[in-house]
Structures are given as C-alpha cells and as structure tokens.
Design brief:
The chain has about 425 residues and is mainly alpha-helical. The chain contains 17 helices and no strands. It is about 75% helix and about 0% strand.
C-alpha cells in the first residue's frame, strides 16, 4: 500500500527506495555519528566529573568498539535470517536505552557496560542497514545509495560538534549527562522511524528495485548451505583484505591528526580544529561521490582511485612542514573519508545478492575492525620508538598504496540472482 503512494508499475514517480536511503542515512547518523562521535565530544567533561583516568576512558572506547565488532557479524547474520528491518529497529532501541543509561552512571564499571551495549546496538543497526540498500537498488544505482548513507557519519560528526558544546555551556558539570540523554532520545526517535518506514525488500510492496526491472520473488531464508557463499568465497576474503588495509591506514591518520599538528608541528589547536572540521564537512559528500563513481566506472576502479588519493594524502601529511601541504592532505582525506564503506557495501551486494549481503558485510566489517584496532597500537609504538608520528603516517601511506595494489586484482562477479530478496 505504502509503495503505491510513490511508484505504480512502470510509470515514473518518486520511488520508495529513496525513502529507504533517507531513513538509512538517518540511521547511520544515529548509530555511528551520535553513538560513536558523541563520545569523542563528551569524553573530556565526563572524565573530569567521574574522575576517570585516561586508561579508563580508553577502555570505554575499546568496549564500544568491541561491541560493534561482535554484533556487526552477528547482526548481519541475523538480518540475513530474519530480515533487516526488525534487527535494525530493535538494535536502535538498544542503542537509545544504553546511551540514556550512560547519562546515569556514577563510575567506570557501569559506564563500560553501557558503552559495550551501545556498540552492540550500533553494529546491529548500521551493518544490516548498509546491506538493506542492496534489496532496493540495482547494481547500477547501488553505489550511489550506499555512498549516500555512508555520509551519515560525517553529518553526525558535524551535528555533535555543533550541539554538544552548547549543551555543556548551558548545563555546566551536568551537561555531559544531558548530552547522553539528548543523543539517546534522538536515536529513540530514529528507531521509531525505522520500525515504521523500513521495508525489507521492494517486492513486499509491489515494486522493482530502483533502476531495475521487477522479477518474480524468490524469497528464501538463508540456510546453512548458503553460508559457504559468504565464508567460503575467495572474493569475500579478498574484499575483507581490502577493508582491513583501509581500516589500518585511515585510523592512524584520523586518530593522530591533531596531536601531530599541535605537538610536533607547532600548529595552534584552533587551526588544527578548523582543518578537522573542514574534513568533517567535506566527508559528508565523500560516500555519495565515490558511490556514483563506482557505479559508473566499476567497484575495482573506485577502490583503486580512493586508495591512491589516500596514499597521496598520508604521504604529504608525513613529509610536509607548511600549511598548504596540510590543507591539501586534509582536502584529499575529506574527499575519500567515508568512501570505501559505501563502495564495499555495494560490492558485497553485487557479489552475494541482497539476501546474503548483510551477512557478508558483517564478516568483512569484523576484519575491518581488526585492522582499525591494530593501526593506532602499532602507530603509537612507532611514535614511542622514534619520538615522532612521521614514520607512522608514512606507514599509513604505504598501507594505502598496498590497498590500491590489492584492489587492482579484485575480480568481482555479480550474483546470479541479484533480486533474490
């Protein structure tokens, strides 16, 4: 019924698929932008008020990442088995409750549990949502859709940067608690929208995917026999390696960006902050840009081009001593920041088909998370040895270059039944 309001048969109109990616972008804003980047903004005030050590605050971040990695895989599998809508909606409710609960904590132990649960919900909502786009968009439109949703991370980063400082200023020492309540409340609203508006597949409301033709539905729940298509696929492992290299390299740059500029290059904190804000604004459009690029020129070409630009960005950053160099590096990174997650989601959908896409995306996200965890640890160790992060950024550059080489040999074949959901 709802689809008929937007699209009837083959007549032109506003396709309900665009409602799906609008809600999807909002879900990414909540599950990543608010749930993850909100912590970055709240951390200093929360640390002072609860008298937590830097080690404890770091462990809270680790708890959130651990929860995300666990449920990025399990959430993807459950979404493939029971349908994305129910998993996404319930996971968002979990995120909302945990974030509101974080505002009530009085010490480290309960805060750690709340951040772990937040991570579980984030993984259970973000990964299946990226996979859901495969059901609603044909291969020639899929990169645009997943890329657009990836930009939600940048939107969330900008919003928390605007909203939370004003909350802290108004409420003083109590502001960090209000910040958690506010973000949790917003995610609760997003969860309701997801439950009311998401649809698992276009065939449920009599539609074809955007850019595709309507075919008879072959909607079978993923059986144990089909999991070999995910975990036994050499192509999936190849894409997991690509995602690992991205996670390892980009996180070094994003983690130590400000510290390097301020502590080693003598840049003012306000100037470094302005560069980071510039990255945040530009990054909103990076997923859409490279998603469209991959639709037009192929997923492999998209991966290679993104990695080459990030290689140049990281290389310049490690070697330059002038502001123009840092600016160029920031611009290149901003243009590619959220690009690979979107292209990866589209690639998984192309290869597995829409039904198994959430499970495949969950698996490669787990491997991505391992790279994301190893990158800062190795970079920090190198910085301790050399008393500088220059070599660490150089490592990030050459890992990105390796990513371009590995991507060049990707042989991506489309699923034989792309509209199987």
């Amino acid at each position: 019924m709802v689809g008929k309001l937007f699209f009837k048969g083959n007549k032109p109109g506003f396709h309900y698929g665009y409602v799906i990616i609008t809600i999807g972008t909002t879900i990414v804003v909540g599950s990543l932008g608010f749930a993850r980047f909100g912590y970055t903004m709240i951390l200093p005030v929360m640390q002072r008020n609860l008298e937590l050590s830097s080690t404890e605050m770091g462990l809270l971040a680790t708890g959130n990442l651990t929860g995300y990695l666990i449920f990025s895989l399990l959430g993807g599998i459950l979404a493939s088995r029971y349908g994305p809508k129910i998993i996404i909606s319930y996971s968002l409710f979990i995120v909302a409750i945990a974030m509101i609960g974080t505002g009530f904590v009085q010490g480290f132990a309960l805060a750690f549990i709340m951040r772990l649960i937040t991570g579980l919900g984030s993984g259970g909502s973000n990964v299946p949502m990226m996979g859901l786009a495969s059901s609603w968009f044909s291969p020639r439109k899929r990169g645009m859709a997943t890329g657009l949703m990836s930009g939600g991370s940048g939107i969330g980063l900008v919003l928390v940067g605007i909203i939370l400082p004003r909350v802290f200023s108004y409420y003083g020492d109590f502001g960090w608690r209000v910040g958690w309540y506010l973000l949790g409340g917003l995610i609760f609203v997003i969860a309701i929208l997801a439950y009311r508006l998401l649809v698992n597949r276009p065939g449920q409301i009599g539609l074809a995917p955007v850019g595709g033709e309507k075919k008879p539905e072959n909607y079978n729940k993923a059986s144990s026999l089909q999991w070999s298509l995910v975990f036994g696929s050499r192509t999936i492992w190849h894409m997991a390696a690509i995602y690992f290299l991205f996670g390892f390299s980009y996180i070094i740059y994003s983690t130590f960006f400000a510290s390097f500029l301020v502590d080693e290059r003598g840049m003012l904190e306000t100037t470094a902050g302005s560069l980071w804000a510039l990255i945040g604004v530009i990054s909103i459009f990076s997923g859409l840009l490279w998603g469209i690029f991959s639709d037009r020129f192929g997923r492999r070409s998209g991966f290679v081009a993104i990695f080459i630009l990030q290689f140049i960005s990281f290389l310049i950053f490690s070697q330059t001593f002038v502001f123009s160099g840092y600016l160029v590096s920031s611009l290149l990174f901003g243009l590619t920041a959220w690009s690979i997650p979107g292209v990866m989601a589209a690639s998984i959908g192309d290869h597995l088909g829409s039904r198994l896409a959430p499970a495949g995306l969950g698996f490669v996200t787990l491997i991505f998370g391992i790279g994301q965890a190893l990158g800062p640890a190795i970079a920090g160790y190198m910085a301790d040895l050399t008393a500088s992060f220059s070599l660490a950024f150089l490592l990030a550059a050459f890992v990105a270059l390796l990513g371009a080489v590995v991507s060049f040999f990707l042989n991506l074949k489309h699923a034989s039944t792309d509209y199987d959901s």
